[in-house]
């Protein structure tokens, strides 16, 4: 018997018992929809977690700190400072694409009546290119002139000193954002902040003379970081400049004097090279971040990454997904029992038909396949309608619960990827055929003469 004949007979048999077939398909529909929606919630939770952590910074970046910069050296040997040589060693680690040192210096910025205490960060060209801009361009590498890339929330750090409430130390209009024009107007910057505060307070130098106000430098803005005043990201509060240009500027300003944030030797003299507070190591793939991070810590440096948080969150997400999937699987198991019951009833009602087929010499395997096709077709119909119903439920969940989870991070809580839909359909067919397997075996074992005599 041809497959098309078996399929035609199976469909016709199901059509003769429309109500029973409908109720059985409905059971598979509910079971399939339950497991798909439950799994989609687990997938959505996992992906939302990744998106939330990724919004804090790249998932392939490792932030490295020097223990020596934070008092981690016992003083018995030369501190393990992070220098250009160490940065080169980071770049040689397998799976590392780039390593960028971060040179921080604290400055005072002025524009009009506003001022702010800002940390300027000197970064490499590779690091600078990772900063998305909403306006302007990145500073050209090799240009000795300091050009700034300013974070989208830096304006909130500016204030008018004349509006300070002397009683409480707060600014009268602290909640409003000062009108600072970074693009069209330059900023005056003071690098020697110690000299500035000493001159303002009437301090005296080593020679006993009053400290002179330090020189102000005029810096312009090359670009603004992408985002609004409320859109926080990893670069929102930073001011970034080219690393080599910043080094040149600091050497020119401080000459032989110690540069702020740079350690000195035991004699109190500055080193003849720059020492970095931290570095950013870019890994080629998320899967290799943990391995690279361990290599860096074995070298004696502190290292952390967003992957640490992500791995913990993924473990929780997998537990949630397994729990939700298990709840949905119970519904599909109940539906499988319904299919088995339907097929058993069908055998009892069609005993005479089965007997006639056997007397006419029909192959036993064809009889088995006919019942397997019927049960598989029930699973197929239930799977298709279950997936369509799941998309509707998922859409409803996302509309009702949008933004209520994961700290208001935008995104869908229920997500049904194509592979989940296809897997659910095939799984529903498999469950249907598995549920119909034993009834099909029973149909094969029926005695032809007893089946024909059955009324």
Architecture blueprint of SSEs:
Blueprint: H1 3-16, H2 18-55, E1 61-65, H3 84-91, E2 96-111, E3 114-123, H4 125-129, E4 133-136, E5 147-150, E6 164-165, E7 170-171, E8 187-190, H5 193-200, E9 217-225, E10 239-242, H6 243-254, E11 278-283, H7 289-298, E12 302-305, H8 306-349, H9 351-359, H10 364-400, H11 418-435, H12 437-445, H13 448-453
Parallel strand pairs: 3-10, 5-9
Antiparallel strand pairs: 1-11, 1-12, 2-3, 2-8, 2-11, 4-9, 5-10, 6-7, 8-9
Helix pairs in contact: 1-10, 2-8, 2-10, 2-11, 8-11, 8-12, 10-11, 10-12
What do these coordinates show?
With 455 residues, the protein is of the alpha+beta class. The protein has 2 domains: 3-55 and 313-453, no CATH class; 61-284, no CATH class. It is built from 13 helices and 12 strands. Helix 2 (18-55) packs antiparallel against helix 8 (306-349) and helix 8 runs parallel beside helix 12. The longest helix has 44 residues, at 306-349. It is elongated. The two termini are 26 Å apart.
The proportion of residues forming helix, as a percent range, comes to: 40-55%
Principal-axes geometry comes out as: elongated
Structural domain count: 2
- Compute the number of strand runs: 12
The residue ranges in which pLDDT falls below 50 over 5 or more consecutive positions are: 70-74, 166-174
> Which strand-content bin applies to the residues?
15-25%
Q: Overall mean pLDDT score? A: 79
What's the N-to-C terminus distance?
A: 26 Å
Strand order of the largest sheet: 2-3-10-5-9-8
Helix count, per DSSP?
13
What would you call the structural class? alpha+beta
Run of helices and strands:
HHEHEEHEEEEEHEEHEHEHHHHHH
Main sheet record: 6 strands, mixed, barrel
Rg value: 35 Å
């Amino acid at each position: 018997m041809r497959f098309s004949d078996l399929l035609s007979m199976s469909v016709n048999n199901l059509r003769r018992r429309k109500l029973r077939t409908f109720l059985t398909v409905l059971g598979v529909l509910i079971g399939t929809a339950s497991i798909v929606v439950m799994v989609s919630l687990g997938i959505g939770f996992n992906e939302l977690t990744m998106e939330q952590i990724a919004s804090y910074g790249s998932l392939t970046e490792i932030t490295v700190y020097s223990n020596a910069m934070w008092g981690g050296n016992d003083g018995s040997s030369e501190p393990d400072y992070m220098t250009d040589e160490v940065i080169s060693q980071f770049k040689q680690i397998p799976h590392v694409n780039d390593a960028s040192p971060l040179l921080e210096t604290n400055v005072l910025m002025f524009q009009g009546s506003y001022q702010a205490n800002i940390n300027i960060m000197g970064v490499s060209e590779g690091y600078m290119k990772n900063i998305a801009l909403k306006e302007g361009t990145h500073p050209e590498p090799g240009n000795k002139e300091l050009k700034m890339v300013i974070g989208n929330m830096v304006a909130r750090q500016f204030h008018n000193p004349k509006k300070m409430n002397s009683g409480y130390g707060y600014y009268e209009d602290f909640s409003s954002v000062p009108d600072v024009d970074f693009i069209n107007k330059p900023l005056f910057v003071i690098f020697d902040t110690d000299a500035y505060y000493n001159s303002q307070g009437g301090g005296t130098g080593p020679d006993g003379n009053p400290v002179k106000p330090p020189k102000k430098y005029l810096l312009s803005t090359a670009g603004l970081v992408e985002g609004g005043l409320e859109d926080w990201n990893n670069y929102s509060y930073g001011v970034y400049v080219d690393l080599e240009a910043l080094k040149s500027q600091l050497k020119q300003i401080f000459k032989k004097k110690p540069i702020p944030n740079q350690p000195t030797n035991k004699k109190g003299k500055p080193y003849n090279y720059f020492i970095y507070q931290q570095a950013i190591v870019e890994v080629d793939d998320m899967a290799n971040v943990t391995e690279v991070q361990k290599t860096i810590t074995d070298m004696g440096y502190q290292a952390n990454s967003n992957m640490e948080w992500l791995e913990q969150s993924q473990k929780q997400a997998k537990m949630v997904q397994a729990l939700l999937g298990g709840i949905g699987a119970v519904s599909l198991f109940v539906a499988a029992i319904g299919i088995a019951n339907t097929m058993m009833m069908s055998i009892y009602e069609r005993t005479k038909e089965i007997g006639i087929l056997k007397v006419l010499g029909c192959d036993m395997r064809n009889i088995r396949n006919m019942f397997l096709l019927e049960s598989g077709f029930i699973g197929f119909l239930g799977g298709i309608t279950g997936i369509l119903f799941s998309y509707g439920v998922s859409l409803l969940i996302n509309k009702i619960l949008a933004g209520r989870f994961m700290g208001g991070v935008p995104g869908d809580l229920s997500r049904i990827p194509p592979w989940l839909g296809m897997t659910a359909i095939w799984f529903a067919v498999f469950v249907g055929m598995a549920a119909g397997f034993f009834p099909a075996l029973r149909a094969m074992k029926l005695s032809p003469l007893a089946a024909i005599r059955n009324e």
